[in-house]
Amino acid sequence: MLRYYLNLYPAFLRIAVLAQIQYRASGVIWMIGSIIEPVIFLVVWSRVARARGGEVGGYAENEFAAYYIVLMLVNHVTFTWIMHVFQSRIQFGQLSFQLMRPVHPIHEDLSDNVAYKIVQLTVMLPAVIILILIFQPKFNFEMWSLLLAVPAIILALAVRFTLEWTLALVAFWTTRVNAINQSYFAIIMFFSGRVAPMALLPVTIQSIASALPFYYMIAFPVELLLGKLTPAQALTNIVIQLGWLAFALMLLVSLWKVAVKQYSAVGN
Amino acid sequence: MVAAVLADGLHKTYQVPVRGAGIQAALKSLVHRETEAVQAVKNVNLEIAEGEVVGFLGPNGAGKTTTIKMLTGLLHPTTGIAQVFGYQPAKREHQFLMQITLVMGQRNQLLWDIPVIDSFDRNRVIYKVSKTDYEKTLDELVALLDLDSLLHKPVRNLSLGERMKCEIAVALLHRPRMLFLDEPTIGLDVTMQRKLREFITQYNQQTGATVLLTSHYMADVQALCKRVIVIHHGSILFDGYLDHLVQRFTAHKTISIKLSDPLVDLSGYGELITRSEEQAAFRIPNREAANFTSRLLRDLDIVDLTVEDPPIEEIIESVFNQSA
Questions:
Q1: Which of A240, A248, A228, A237 has the alpha carbon at shortest distance from A70?
Q2: Which domain does B285 fall in, by range?
Q3: B chain contacts of residue A101, beta-carbon cutoff 8 Å
């Protein structure tokens, strides 16, 4: 079975890259959004830091620049769009075809996701270079944190992808998924460090955030890369990521079973 | 021997929400959602042997697609047993899915923006088809369906007919043993319909695959299926040879004659449907057809005489009307 997937993924990836190249125009438009958001917060927090005499919550002006540029990259690697598309997949019968194939649809979604990110790096990397030139960030990269960041980012993607794929399954029960999606996006925005670095939030919020999975999907690898964590903290967080991944996978498997049963009970 | 397809006492009941018109009914449904049970399929029993090509007929909403979805595993039966090659479709086991295919007209599994050949390649990997088998099957499909010029075009640039041919091809690349074809010729012109029919026949003969086909075009069914299953209001009305269906449900034959004398009086022979100067056609009950014919031949000077069954569309329509 492992060999099957080892053949499957390169083929899926190849096709997904081909398709993504076809969609390059719409891909670029999507990218504009994911670049503008961190830039706005970067500008706002830099101004706040300057007004406060050069620092807020342990972040100097040029460290905010570093934080949001790295966050932009980590968010690019870990984001998914599955929650936007699942409903139409059910509505227009595409899911029926996916169910008829002897392979779980999640594998193709993961390939599409990775392919999109690879193709869009051609937009993302120049954007990063331009932002570095404009905002003069201060990076404190260290060898150990760069090395640990690799598994941390991969796990962040795995947790976020699995969890959002599972949440997308609500489309099996309701046709009003937009309301649910909007609430989710607001929550993740706040608790994942996108609105502000965790250190700037009240302590109560910080402890709530550490009990939720969102910090581990975005902010944790960012803080790790910026040298804000000790090796012990970093390793603990990686273990927590593994825990969330196991939980999300279990949830996905059991909910998928129920969802397919529901789908095939009601018809489509 | 295990039958390719087996359905035993298959039922499917949908719970459909019902709500009256107006605000009051809308508010009431907030508190208490009323549902109504709709029986889409009632006690369907059927058995299809491996290698058979069976036509599945019925008007819209008769339960054809529901039955096919239960046989492909997209729907759980409410009660009863569905089996394909001994597998329970609703379990969607890997080995089961590897052996079947479902073609639904107007739906597509091809990727819209990339060349057809890339979608083909995706299925090759999904269905673990070896490179040599793939090349061989692809060559055959290209030849049979005339796909050569289409393979390297993006799907969005294909016409409906071209796309449909590619849909069929991609659905067959893994050489399925069981084909569920739900309206495969919908939207195609007459030539393309004929080509597809020829192809399905050839595929069945070459591979011994079993085919269950629904179509609104009787020409499809006549060309492909010796056996037909007629379903109406969720129940099977007829299961047997197409010829027998014709015999059972047509009470009349059409007898056409050509006369040497255009002025002869034909009244009193039987129900006259058309009459021109030399031509005439009668509608005669089956039982009387033989006597009627000999009487005509004895009494009149006849140049030509044909006895025909009514067109198959008319027969099917009368089947549905009788049971309505």
A1: A228
A2: 251-308
A3: 97, 126
